[in-house]
Write a structure and sequence with these properties.
This protein is an alpha+beta fold. It is built from seven helices and nine strands. Strand 1 and strand 2 form a beta hairpin.
Length: about 250
């Protein structure tokens, strides 16, 4: 298994190489598109304006976050569990690359989720948690808030960030089957769009979201994805494909 060295620059180069190698390994073209690091969120103008204002006005914080050591280790910083001005600058850069708001350099839950996602991408076929099957299975890890797809134990859709249900509207764990697909679906229950909806349990579906994927609260039970990730996932799945959901979402 290829592993990324510590150090911000070396790590970014390594992740990029891993993505290229995976793309050259026979993955469907649409699936390669779904693994883009940043991935357009396609927010509405009001959301985009709000996030821009937060980004422009947020000051870099010197407060130590609850995930300080984990973030320091991932970004190749000195692992001492104490925030510094240098730490803040690097963490803030990482947040901006992933579209995490507010981008104040605080090692909080959203930033930790970004770390978990990048680690999962680097794991490649060695990623753990999803039982091997003889066919295609969509793997939804609520602990790490990520989704990927395997075929007989081989990753065919690299991990992407996901947002599962809040404590009040939990995503149902266990084995499911995609039984309906609606490319342009409108939820009359919650009065909102669900692009590229692939239903796997009652009204719960895999679908694109126009809201920043990193933020709380969780969904109303669906598995939210960035718009482009949901679009890429749509092109590779079919009715009858299995979905395996496990773990528990933290936060909210």
């Amino acid at each position: 298994m290829t592993r990324c060295e510590s150090g911000r620059v070396r790590r970014l180069i390594c992740v990029a190489i891993l993505l290229v190698l995976a793309g050259a390994g026979g993955l469907p073209v649409a699936y390669a598109a779904g693994a883009d690091r940043s991935g357009p969120q396609v927010p509405g103008p009001e959301i985009a304006a709000t996030e821009s204002a937060i980004s422009d006005t947020a000051a870099c914080t010197l407060s130590t976050g609850p995930y300080q050591e984990e973030v320091e280790e991932h970004l190749g910083l000195v692992v001492d569990g104490v925030q510094s001005a240098a730490d803040c600058a690097v963490i803030r850069e990482f947040q901006r690359e992933l579209g995490i708001h507010p981008d104040q350099g605080y090692a909080g839950l959203y930033t930790y989720r970004g770390v978990m996602w990048e680690r999962a991408v680097a794991d490649g076929d060695a990623i753990g948690g999803c039982p091997d099957t003889s066919g295609v299975v969509v793997c939804v890890d609520m602990n790490r808030q990520i989704l990927w797809v395997e075929n007989a134990g081989r990753v065919i859709f690299r991990p992407v960030p996901a947002r599962t249900g809040s404590p009040d509207f939990p995503t149902r764990a266990g084995w499911h089957t995609i039984f309906d697909r609606q490319k342009e679906f409108w939820s009359t229950l919650y009065e909102g769009p669900m692009p590229f909806a692939q239903f796997f349990d009652g009204g719960q579906a895999l679908h694109g979201s126009y809201r920043n994927i990193w933020e709380d609260p969780g969904s109303h039970g669906c598995v939210n994805l960035r718009y482009e990730d949901a679009k890429a996932l749509w092109s590779g799945l079919r009715l009858g494909d299995e979905v395996h959901v496990w773990g528990r979402r933290t936060g909210d």
